[in-house]
Amino acid sequence: VIARHFAYETPRDLGAATAILAAGGAGVAVLGGGTWLVPNMSLGASAPDVVLDTRHLGLQSIEESPDELLIGARVTYEQIKASALVRRHAPLLALMANKITGGLQITGQGTLGGSACYANPSSDVPACLAVLGARLQLASSMGQRDVPAAEFFTAAFVTARRADELLTSIVIPKCASPRAGYYKLKFSTGSWPIVTAACLPLSDGEKPGLRIGIGGACVTPVVFSVDMAAQEAASVEASVAAAATQSIVDEWSDEFAGPGYRRAVAGAIAVRALRACQGAAR
Amino acid sequence: MTAPLQFELTLNGARCEGEIDSRSLLVDAVRTLGATGARIGCRTGDCGACTIVVDGRLTKSCLVLAASAAGSTVFTIEGSTDPVTTTLQQTFIDHKGFQCGFCTSGMILTAAQALRDKPDLTDDDIRRALSGNLCRCTGYDDIVRAVRAAADRLLEKRGNTAAKA
Question: What radius of gyration, in Å, describes the C-alpha atoms of chain A?
Answer without folding.
Answer: 19
